[in-house]
Amino acid sequence: MTDRIDVLHVDDDPSILDLTTAYLDRELDAVDVASVTDPETALDRLAEETFDCVISDYDMPEMTGLDFFERLRADDSAIPFILYTGKGSEEIASQALNAGVTGYFQKGGPEQLRRLANRVEQAVEDARTRVIAERYSTVIEALNYPVYVVDETGVFQFVNEPFAELTGYDREEIIGSTPGFIKDDAAVAEAEERLGQILSSEGPDAQRFPVDIQPKEGEPIPCRDHMAALPYDGEEFEGSVGILRDVSDERRRERELEMKTRALDEAPVGITVTDPQQDDNPMVYVNDRFVEMTGYDRSDSIGVNCRFLQGPDTDPQAVETLRRALDADEPASVEMLNYRKDGTEFWNRVSIAPIRAADGSVTHWVGFQRDITEFKEREVALERQNERLESFAGIVSHDLRNPLNVAQARAQFLQEDIGDNEDLDALQTALDRIESIVEQTLTLAREGETVGEVASVALPELVTDSWETVDTADATLSVETDQTIPADPARLRSLFENLIRNAVEHGGPDVTVRVGDLDDGFYVEDDGEGIPEAVRGDLFPPGKTSTQNNTGFGLAIVESIATAHGWQVEATEAESGGARFEFTGIERLTPPAPAPQ
After folding, report:
1. Residue-wise pLDDT tens digits, 148-166
2. Which range is least confidently modeled, 260-264, 341-345, 485-489?
3. How far apart are CA 310 and CA 268, in angstroms?
4. What is the pLDDT of residues 167-210, one digit of tens each?
5. 334/360 Cα distance (integer angstroms)
6. What are the DSSP calls for 328-394, one per residue?
7. Average pLDDT rounded to a whole number, residues 210-229
8. How many Cβ atoms are within 10 Å of 346's Cβ, its own excluded?
9. What residues have CB less than 8 Å from 108, skipping those under 6 apart?
10. H/E element holding 92?
11. Which residue of 58, 142, 434, 547 is most buried, as measured by CB atoms within 10 A?
12. pLDDT value, residue 548
């Protein structure tokens, strides 16, 4: 031992104290002996000072050495205590050892003193080792990590309880076995190689590496092994110590992060992440689609603000909307004209949202960028088409209707002058049909797939009102629904009027029309001749009709009204064999009526 040993020697004979001090000084490298002639004084010294070992005589005037030992143990149970007495007997030795003294020696010559010195040195070393072990044990328990010690022969000498819990084996099953007990051959070989690097003069003092631990039951557990060699003097290797850490959750998070990163990289929209903690809120991530969409690669984009996509015709109002959102830490979405790296324009739908920490503070911003150039071009084309359609509707309404009205009036005058005439009847019918085509063409052109204000519409009342506005001859209406749906009342009325008119025209004057419930909508059917299966899928284009003198616009109007509401319509066959039109995808505001018995 190189650390100094502080010894307290208690004996009522000063000559023994001097002799013992001399031998301890000679035999031990670094020792400081305090000599005391009575136990009470020794107890006082022990209360005020720190000593590594106590040597005591047995037969002293005030108290025996064992009484002194018991008084000392009441305050300090850890300090080594050696009974060194001239009054030796088997009885005293037995009492001393049973009491728990560290050593018992009879006074004697130089050999006994050398033995006493060796025993002091050994007792102090053991005590210090025990203190260090207790400290390490406290640290190990506080860490709550699996800890192991493997000796120089590669056998487990120690594992703690967390290590046993990790592997599923009892500590008794592990101690005495080799690491191959819980590792495969490749893992054992790697650990040996790492240990060799540690023992090498050029290697690190410790190694950290991944290892899979095979538990008693179940799949291998991914761990990280922190391994070091046990302290040794450079001449003799005594083994290794290691701490395992279960990284199953860490591996799972890494896989999740990898999957999320791949998802971001391969997303069909441009994705950017910016860091508002840095000056000018630069981009710190861009995905593949952003690079493809803008023409700027990652080296161009990372570290700069995304405003470099803006150009001379970018709408300042859209930029201001994004700026206000950033200032308010709120999400926003705008459509703006941006510029690619080659200078070409593209329309960009930009949506931004803050990424918040647990305390609610904004750490980053994520941006989603979608190229909507084709959509914008279609939007412009549609506007132009609508303008042309409106112009066409004006022509139909004014330039065609005016001469039509003149022709109808002239035909009426002729019929009044001549009377019944087959040619005039045919002419009047043709003019009436032209007027109907004009009216329904205007309906499609001006209303199309649009709806006005949506309200709660009670189907029974609206169907009945629609029936009364159509010439139904001797037809019969059966309303078998009491549901209420959200719809534009005027357009829905037009839908039913066209369906009722279609049923009477195709099913005959005495047809029966039924309106009933579906799970997510309603149906309108009749008991007429029905629709041939070959033409059911081609009924709705304008001008399609199988009835002479019919305009063929009625079902086109029906489909446009359904589409405007977001519904689906399908032509099929009724149970009676007649025509059936089913409307689905409808939100129901009241439950449907029970099916008729």
Report:
1. 989 888 999 888 889 999 9
2. 260-264
3. 22
4. 999 999 999 999 998 999 999 999 998 888 888 766 677 889 99
5. 25
6. HT--EEEEEEEE-TTS-EEEEEEEEEEEE-TTS-EEEEEEEEEE-HHHHHHHHHHHHHHHHHHHHHH
7. 93
8. 18
9. none
10. helix 90-99
11. 58
12. 44
- Residue 126: the pLDDT is 84
Q: Which 8-state DSSP code applies to residue 73?
A: H
Mean pLDDT calculated for residue range 452-457: 86
Tokens representing 316 are 């300042």
Which helix H or strand E contains 186, and what residues bound it? helix 185-199
CB 372, CB 338: distance < 8 Å:
no
So what's the pLDDT on residue 322? 95
Q: In which element (H, E) is residue 290 found?
A: helix 288-294
Q: Spell out the SS3 assignment of 151-183.
A: ECCCCEEEECHHHHHHHCCCHHHHCCCCHHHCC
The helix/strand/coil state of 580 is strand
Cα distances from 240 to residues 148, 196, 245, 522, in angstroms, run: 8, 11, 17, 80
Q: Which tokens hold the place of 261?
A: 């990163």
Q: How is residue 233 annotated by DSSP?
A: -
Residues in the chain: 597
Nearby residues of 352 by Cβ (< 8 Å), 6 or more positions away: 322, 325, 326, 331, 332, 333, 365, 366, 367, 368
The residues near 35 (Cβ < 8 Å, ≥ 6 apart) are 9, 11, 14, 17, 18, 21
Q: Work out the average pLDDT over 348-375.
A: 94
- Check residue 550 and give its pLDDT: 43
Unique residue bearing structure tokens 């005030």: 62
Q: Cα-flanking dihedrals φ and ψ of residue 153, to 5°? A: -90, 0
Rounded to an integer, the average pLDDT of 59-81 is 87
Q: What is the pLDDT of residue 289?
A: 94
535 pLDDT higher than 80:
no
Over residues 412-435, the pLDDT tens digits come to 878 778 877 887 777 877 777 666
Give 241-267 as a 3 state SS string: EEEEEECHHHHHHHHHHHHHHHHHHHC
Which residues are CB-neighbours of 259 under 8 A, at least 6 positions away?
A: none
Residues 6+ apart with CB under 8 A from 124: 1, 5, 52, 53, 80
Q: What is the pLDDT of residue 429?
A: 74
Q: Which residue has the tokens 């005037």?
A: 61
- Reduced to 3 states (helix: H, G, I; strand: E, B; else coil), residue 581 is strand
Average pLDDT, rounded, for the chain: 85
Nearest Cα neighbor of 269 from 339, 368, 351, 337 is 368
pTM check: above 0.70: no
Q: Whole-angstrom Cα distance, residue 158 to residue 172?
A: 10
Give the C-alpha separation, 478 to 524, whole Å: 10
The residue with greater pLDDT, 259 or 410, is: 259
Please write the tens of the pLDDT for every residue from 482-498. Answer: 999 999 888 898 889 88
CA–CA gap between residue 570 and residue 97 (Å, rounded): 104
Using alpha carbons only, what angle is made at residue 434 by residues 547 and 448, rounded to the nearest 5 degrees?
85
